[in-house]
Amino acid sequence: GEDGLKLRTKWLGDLTVQDQAKLEEDFELAYDLAEQEVAKYRKKNGSKNKDHNVELSVEKKKEISEKKLKVVVKLYIDQITQNNILTLKKLFLDSPGHVCIDLDFYSEQEQLLGQIVVNQEWGVRFDSQLERMLKNFSFVKSVQLTSIE
After folding, report:
1. Most exposed: 23, 70, 109, 115, by fewest CB within 10 Å?
2. pLDDT(110) > 80
3. Is residue 146 within a helix (H) or strand (E), and if so which, with residue range?
């Protein structure tokens, strides 16, 4: 619900914190919470629909296929500003869908410093336009669409 979004928004807001240790701590927390959310979600929406052979709508089929995907966006943390984060957030909110997003934050030395996981609930519909826009940012190292299963 609402709380989930606020939490995530808060993490995104805190990304410009200069204190590296504090930042990594926040990432850990964010990651744990995201995992709990996902587990809760899976449990809640588990095996209910196994027996129904209902003809699925086009939207539903799209949703199901999107839920098997995730986008991994690798970012250089040194080059990112608060505004960049807000831009990313807006971009994702403007393309609502069910593809999960992993934001991986790297140092210039290619060391992974942290990760924010945006689950399906706040996921995106990933298309070539979104991919192009993401790749145009100087702080984006790479964008990769992968299958979850």
Report:
1. 109
2. yes
3. strand 140-147
